[in-house]
Specification:
heterodimer; A: about 130 residues; mainly alpha; Fumarate Reductase Iron-sulfur Protein, Chain B, domain 2; B: about 300 residues; alpha/beta; Glutathione S-transferase Yfyf (Class Pi), Chain A, domain 2; 11 helices
Amino acid sequence: MNLTDSNRDLTARVEELSGENVYSCYQCGKCSAGCPFTEDMDLLPNQVIRKVQFGDESVLKTETPWICASCLSCEVDCPKGNDVPAIMEGIREISLRQNVDEVDLKQMDTRGLPEIALVSNLRKKTG
Amino acid sequence: MQELPYYPGCSLKDTANNFETSALKTAEELGFDLEELPRWNCCGTVYSLTDDNLMKQLGPIRNLVHAQSHGYDRLYTLCSMCDNTLKRANLLVKEDQDKLKKINAFMDQEPDYLGEVEVRHFLQLLRDEVGWERVRENVKNPLNDLNIAPYYGCMLTRPREVGLDDPHDPSVFDDLIEALGANPVDFAYDSECCGSYNTVDKAEVVLDKTETIINGARKAGADLMITSCPLCQFNLDSRQVDLIEVAPSHEPLPVLYFTQLTALAFGHPEACQFSENSVDPTTKVEPVKNPATER
């Protein structure tokens, strides 16, 4: 693929939001090996990082960052010390800061849910 | 009674009230009076992972300002999510004076936070201050022959910087279970995420995890499971009711707060509010008679 300035923009934006150096990832795949949610994801966590390294904006349309629950299993396993959940949050935030919410409170059936479920869901999935 | 400043968080005042009542009774039996932090507010429940938005740090830091204003050098927590969020926000401002200055400048109605309050989980109180020996001495109803799966989840041990135990080989629940006279069960999913807040909009993702974690514990021989997180407790306990609807052969396993276990072992089943648990624990734990009410 040909890299353009807009590709570099995406990489820089994710790095700015997450505070992580995405190029330090050498694609060992340990994050994906330990992730408990890969079967629900459309891209493996290391593939998400690969797309960010290339500045591939299609990563903004993938489901994986919205499945990631910041459980930090990958964060304690990464041999490079990368905070993968922070990179996922950076990707989510790019959409959320354009006022594109992932969930709609009005559509939610909130009955019986504990308070922390709602507050954390809305903090992670709305802008 | 020694007074200890305590931050309950939202869930313990409502859906996880059985967590609070059992914890207060447990503390009382050990000689502590958990004094609720005046004017506490929501911690935010999840620590913000974005580097540039300090607004999301105001909730947790404001609580620490309240603690500081009351002269507390420590603040005790029960909910794993509150504990994690308060500890991480606290660490952020302790390590980054520039961010602390910005947050203090923004919260101009409150005194400046000095970064000196220490956040401690109730499990740290039991393990590091009380000690397992004293816990053992307070047991009036030994939980003999019960096999208990310790479910650590995510927020007690990760990340390492604020975790209260080894993220790959935690032991604090195992040690507690032993001190109460029961057997800790080793199972593969003790630190695997339950799906967390995805329970709101992706319940199917959580149901998969409920099934995996509960069945993993059952196959390892568990009679019940303990946790310290109201969201894990909901996903592992209440979601079993939904699981049975799609998988009628599922055998439910009771999931208790660890303080329900301590209160029970200390002879206070009335503080456990077992009726608030979705899967009835009383089939596994015989409701012992309370010496105080037995007349």
